[in-house]
Specification:
By secondary structure, the protein is an all-alpha fold. Helices cover about 65% and strands about 0% of the residues. The protein has 3 helices and no strands. The radius of gyration is 31 Å and the shape is flat.
């Protein structure tokens, strides 16, 4: 009978442990907004350009708006491209026609 009470007590203890909530995990840090990432990339590009080309401060000031315009244009293109690809959905590229005399692969 003592053995039965010991097993029952152990089962209750295990049940209580199983019902305890898991320790709270720290919340994941939110990724930075897209614009913040773009600013970091622009700063990296500008820093590398100035360093690798050995630009003076005057030349760097002239280059700054040009690089920003170029990057904004590239991002706009990529966004429009992504929208078009998304709109296309299941579209596929048609197969190229076989040239006469070539074997099908």
């Amino acid at each position: 009978m003592d053995r039965l009470r010991a097993v029952a007590g152990a089962c209750r203890a295990l049940g209580a442990l199983a019902q305890e909530p898991e320790p709270a995990r720290p919340p994941r840090a939110e990724p930075p907004p897209r614009e913040e990432a773009w600013k970091l990339v622009d700063a990296y590009i500008l820093s590398n350009l100035q360093e690798s080309l050995g630009l003076s401060d005057e030349q760097f000031v002239k280059l700054l708006p040009l690089v920003k315009t170029l990057q904004a244009s590239r991002r706009g293109f990529m966004q429009r491209r992504g929208e078009l690809i998304g709109r296309c959905g299941g579209c596929s590229v048609p197969e190229r026609p076989q040239r006469p005399g070539s074997k099908a692969s």
